[in-house]
Amino acid sequence: MKVKFWGVRGSLPVPGKETVRYGGNTASLEIITENKEEILFDAGTGIYKLGKKLLNEKYTKTIHLFLTHFHWDHIQGLPFFAPFFDKDFHIKIYFYQVNGVGGRQVLESQLNPKFFPITCDIFSANVEFVAINELDEIKINGVTIKNTLNHHSAGTVSYKVIENGKSLVFMTDNELYCKKEESHPTVESMCDLNKDLVEFVKNSDALIHDTQYFEFNFSEKLGWGHSNNAAVAYFAHVSKVKNLYLFHYDPDHSDEKVDKLFNQTKDILSNELNSETEVTASYEGLEFIL
Ligand SMILES: [Zn+2]
Ligand SMILES: [Zn+2]
Prior knowledge:
Blueprint: E1 2-7, E2 28-32, E3 38-41, H1 47-56, E4 62-66, H2 72-75, E5 90-96, H3 104-110, E6 126-132, E7 138-140, E8 143-149, E9 157-163, E10 166-171, H4 187-193, H5 195-201, E11 206-210, H6 229-238, E12 243-247, H7 255-272, E13 278-281, E14 287-289
Parallel strand pairs: 3-4, 4-5, 5-6, 10-11, 11-12, 12-13
Antiparallel strand pairs: 1-2, 1-14, 2-3, 7-8, 8-9, 9-10
The structure holds zinc ion (2 copies).
One zinc ion (ZN) binds at residues 69, 71, 152-153, 173.
């Protein structure tokens, strides 16, 4: 599979000279499978440019869009996704349903004339909504997609994509639990408090994980539903992940701060944990093959 990042920011788009290297757009990831299936994760503002690219490519006509949850930074680009307005496209939107609400209802409330000048009725594409449940396995032409519930607002899920024995986990908006009395994670507490997620991520080839915060001021952010860089390093290490990609950066984090976030995380993995996990700070436009 070929993977490309179109938006790596959390919470709010932050364009400008301080974010030019990592990018200011919110969550959007593209995967092109070996059978040329187009699988997208989240619809933050990064999906705007991705939509234009898909419109210009003649071969892609079916798009599988998986949403992790409906917070703004994961759906804000949706009304500007160009394939909605082309009758040749079939767009399947997968989402986790909470209390019977999700999918079309959420999109209709976003495309309400009070907030946006058009409604869903104007779409020319064939748009289909697919509600998924925990532990469902979605099969798409040689690829399997599993999910698990995150430590975040109700109904937020992570996805694991498996193709030809390789696996990638997209886990954003997730708080790795830490012991309040510990100022720094330990292997034991990481495994004990996050058993469910370690099990899901174990031995994956690539993990893309929420790294919104630094460890040093994390005590102020406990319970906010996001992770700090030390916890992410420990989590990737105990889960025996091969390649960790930092993602969902705080809007206050300039390029220099993300550099620092990356260097600290790399230092913990290499020098403190003597880990075999490699780390990369994701940025808009980064591509890799798995
Ligand atoms: Zn978010
Ligand atoms: Zn969220």
